[in-house]
Amino acid sequence: MAFEEITSKKYTAGLNNKLMENRTPEAKNTRKAPGRTFSFKLPAAYFFLAPALLTIFVFFFIPVAAAFIISFTDFDIYALSSFSNLRFIALKNYVRIFGEPLFWKALENTFYFVIGAGPISIAVSLGAAMLLNSKLVRLKGLFRLFYFIPVVTTLVAVAVVWRFIYHPRFGILNYLLAFLGVNPIDWLGDPNWAMPAIILMAVWKNFGYNMIIFIAGLQSIPEYLYEAAMLEGAGWWPKFKSITLPMLAPTTVFVGIITMIGYFQLFAEPYVMTQGGPLNRTLSIVQYMYEEGFRWWNMGYSAALAFVLFLIIFAATLIQLKLQKETE
Amino acid sequence: MTTKKILLHSFLLITGLLTLLPFIWMISASFMADGHASVYPPRFIPDSFTTMQYESLFSRLNVARNLFNSLFVSILVTGVSLFINSMAGYAFAKYRFRGRNKIFNLLLSSMIIPSQVTMLPLFLMLKYMGLINTYLAILIPGMANIFGIFLIRQYALSIPDSIIESARIDGAGDFQIYSRIILPLLKPILVTLTIFTFMGTWNDFLWPLISLTDSNMYTLPVALSSLMREHAKDPELMMAGSVITIVPVLIVFLVLQKHYIKGIMLGSVKG
Q: Could you tell me the maximum CA-CA distance found in chain B, to the nearest angstrom?
């Protein structure tokens, strides 16, 4: 029993290995035995963990479970005032979602954004990382800082700034494009240009983050691979295709997954720049969920939407991981 | 070789400046009088320098209060969550207890659940607790953070057990060991987490938009987006508001840059 009070492996290992080996199952039940300092270890671990685990349990796990339950009810503004107005409606919310044209529109827009902005972001990040990783470049830290600043700035504030950058008459984007002979575009007012405009802004805002991860990935590629390729007279493209890309594959999958998860949650950009318009062409799933839940108080329906979003993200993550395994 | 070098550097410089151009225009427009930013061609240097936009933000639109809210909740969440996460991360790394790995893996796998799923019930819970539209509405969901616990645990694993053991032999209690020995050793990762949490809370939008209902309680991003609805035709005023929102995080980032970059690397290791 006294042995059991010594629970630290390292300490006992140093003192006497046999003591640990002789632990009997019965001894395990006496952990709380008072005595030397060591015996406080088990309660101490729980003391250290309690605030975090309690918070996560009460304010994360319970809400997840509650959202699941709510998604099978008609929780609305009447239920908000009295629970007696709450009814279990089984799968009706989910059925309604799939029959709702606005949901399909939001789904289409969100996929347009993810499939558009995701690969472009990653390609720009990789390009920037490769440029900055070149041995010829001086002042790397400064250029890296330039590209990185949009990442740390407040999304809502830059969305406000870009709303004016996209101004059809006075915006700096149309001004710059005029030098290339491009006629003014009503970026946020034209239904066909609104989503590309949001994609452009998202790429600008985010590419610096993945760039950092790619730089680290590039630096971990052994130099001799490139030297060997150079001896064989390989040019830039073959080196990129048969060394850089395969060696970066794990990094790319990781970057792809985190980028995609973030992009599926598109909200602030359209909320600030277009309010989902014009003609709902930039309405995202999260904005649709927000409007249904917190503007119209259709909370049951909104909770169901949240789960649909979760399932989409989950499925997309699995697909990417599977693709990665197949290419290995 | 040298022409290649010059081309490469010019390309980096031009794209770098293009990346910063939105900010240059933002700062410039924020110092213009009403209407002076709505001109063609756009001005990147104010024609006549004025701070009137900032003055009207602070005197007429009460942005000082929003600035205070943002600062206060960001510092509060950072302080509290660092304390709670570091205790939990340390316990996961250095204590052996029943179900440790199971709990830890459960936490890690639950990170896939997007926060939007919890927002509705969380709103209802806090509403019944009377906490909607208070600072606690922002603090409570941010008090513990699975990713933060994960980062601290990974870092704490590298602390040698012998340090803890010798402190124990010297008669230090568990909490003393945590506060006097472990916390100082965790300093690098705590600095990284400080900047992540501070910036994350400062920049957060959807949850404050939902849980803060009174303009006096708005954080800067929420205040800015609501200001945008009324002042869509006032770029100069909106740019001043954007500057006020961006500058504090930018300063925090510039001061602690290295730690932030390191944090991204640590976060990507798990993938």
A: 75
